[in-house]
Amino acid sequence: MEQQFLELQRRFAAEQLKSRQAEARAEEEQRLREEEQLKSKQAEARAEGEQRLREEEQLKSKQAEARAEEEQRLREEEQLKSKQAEARAEEEQRLREEEQLKSKQAEARAEEEQHLREEEQRRREAAEAESQPKNLIEYLETCHSFSLALKVITDKSLSTRGDTTVPTGRPYPQRIVPWGDFPAQQEKIWEKLSISPDFNSQRVFPSEHQLDYVLK
What is the Cα–Cα distance from 51 to 61, expressed in whole angstroms? Predict the structure, then answer.
């Protein structure tokens, strides 16, 4: 009987041992599963973290590209504005030069017209002066200039030949005598004539045009 009881105790102890071992294996398996799940979650977390970092890096790269493109666009706009400003400045310079050229041409035309008017005025005044009767002083000066222009011809071949013309029916000097007191007589006559204020100013003597025949 005692032998049977011991056998039962041994079997019971063996069963309890198996049960505890089974529970231990189950707990170990549960722990391993939990560790595996934890590792899996950590791996997923790392993967998600790496994915997030990659996405952040991509976002930063895109933002950097966007900034670079924006900076490039701004530089191109600035270059375009600079070129447009230069073009406007060149156009304004060209217009100013054209305006200056037109102004100079207008001034040149005005000066030329003024010159032509003055030349015409001088010609008209000269023509009027030539046709205008002379006063006494002008007449005497002209006669004096004519006397200086006279040339004595010494070449007999160029002088008048033959007998002199007989002035029939006309008075002419029969003889020539010296007039010794001419200067004194002339001075007295000039003194008498100069008393009149109109003596030297009246234009009653032949004009320049009328005197041209003397030189011809």
Answer: 15
For residue 86, the Cα-to-chain-centroid distance in whole angstroms is 14
- Find where tokens 């398996």 sit: 29
DSSP 156: G
pLDDT at residue 214 above 70?
Answer: no
Higher pLDDT, 14 or 149: 14
What residues form DSSP beta bridges with 205? 134
**What number is the average pLDDT over the span 66-86?**
96
Where helices occur in the chain by DSSP H, the ranges are 2-131, 136-149, 182-193, 208-215
Q: Please count the other Cβ atoms lying within 10 Å of the Cβ belonging to residue 134.
A: 20
pLDDT of residue 71: 96
Which residues, 6+ apart, have CB-to-CB distance to 204 below 8 Å?
Answer: 133, 135
The per-residue pLDDT for range 30-73, each reduced to its tens digit, is: 998 999 999 999 999 999 999 999 999 999 999 999 999 999 99
Is the CA virtual torsion 71, 73, 77, 79 positive or negative? positive
Q: From residue 93, how far is each of 102, 104, 207 by CA, in Å?
A: 14, 16, 59
| 102 phi/psi in degrees, rounded to 5 | -60, -40
